[in-house]
Amino acid sequence: MERQQESLPRLWTKPFITVTLSNLFLFLNLQMITVVLPAFIAAEYGASSVTISWVISIFALVAILTRFYAGNAIMRLGKSRMLLIGLIIYLAATASYYWAGAIALIMLVRILYGVGFGLTSTAVGTMASDIIPPKRIGEGMGYFGLSSGLSMSLAPVIGLAVYQSFGFDVLILVSAILVAIVFPLAVSLRAAGKEGAGGLHAAEAKRRAEDGGAKEKRGSAENGRKRLIDKEVLLPCFLNLFFTVTYGGLISFLTMFGKETHIANVGWFFLFNALAVMLVRPFAGKLFDRNGPVAVLPAGALFVIAGLVLLSFAASTAVMIVAAVSYGIGYGILQPSLQAWTVKRVSPERRGAATGMFYNSTDLGIAIGSLLLGIVATQTSYAMMYRLSAGFLVLFLLFYGLSYLSQGSKRGQTASSGQL
């Protein structure tokens, strides 16, 4: 057992650390702006919950459309060039918030912002899946996903603090600096790619060089449609969509929920959520690598359900913190496991499209959550909205359970494949 542990390839290489930091800064920018924007346009323009939903959702919908292009474009342009193009657009869109003086202009900025994020997130996610050694894909994606998970949890705390203390303009300046920091990191990744076959695991890079790229080119012509919507990854992406619907309700309306329930500082939710995510992610990744999705997905879904139900009944900061810890544990289990499962189900040359599909399911879930749950909140209350949103994780468990049972007769033959 010890000899097997020693033979594991190295995970914490310079390219892996660089790509993980890049992902952290990109998501910090996104989440700092996203969590503050609803409160800003409600205060500045008197916007309704439905208008706020559209402002949040238009970004996600554009990012989804962009990734349908990005997944295939990576094959032609390369990951590094795609990342640099995306960063330029993403930085320009971030700076443009400063001059957007009406909701219509903010919507236009959100469209440009969605294009930039769609390109950068696909490029960075694909780089990570290529850099991580195949034998440690679950653990590696757990640590890589920790960067986005941490930003999704810490960025709301930072963003709300900056906005309340210094205003929206300073928030935009800080967010733009975060994107600017990624440029030298992207250049270093590009240099590493030239030295080491794009930062890929050495054995995989050698195999591709020997193939001469002929197989990939042939596959690109014959399977272009398959790369846009790959059947192999539909299940994990579909489950991820159910999960992220609930997150859309959190980032869009938690501030309003705090006002409704007279909880003074909802930022505590995101802070304790972040701590729980940090604690759980590394263990969840290793458990996924050893035993597959069945060992982690049901437990993660149950923790998320418990967190949402607790939150819906929260009338004090203490109960809200308990809800945050429960939701964070579930988030820390589900997000990296679903992402690792997605890239594990496809061949290396199709990881770009698979990564794009995974991020699309995330953005689509957030968009649906923001729109649908915003309507629910308007008709009922924010507390009832969170209670009902837990139903999406019930659907998560139902769909995964049915899929798992449907594979029962095949599992004996495919136990070594680790697909279910």
Question: Which features would summarize this protein structure in a list?
Answer:
420 residues, mainly alpha, 83% helix, globular, disordered N terminus
Q: How many β strands by DSSP?
A: 0
* Average pLDDT number: 81
Please tell me what the overall shape is: globular
Helix content class: over 70%
Parts with pLDDT < 50 across at least 5 consecutive residues: 1-5, 195-227
Distance between the termini: 24 Å
Number of helices: 18
Calculate Rg over CA atoms: 21 Å
Major beta sheet summary: none
Element-level helix/strand string:
HHHHHHHHHHHHHHHHHH
Strand fraction band? under 5%
Which structural category fits the helices and strands? mainly alpha
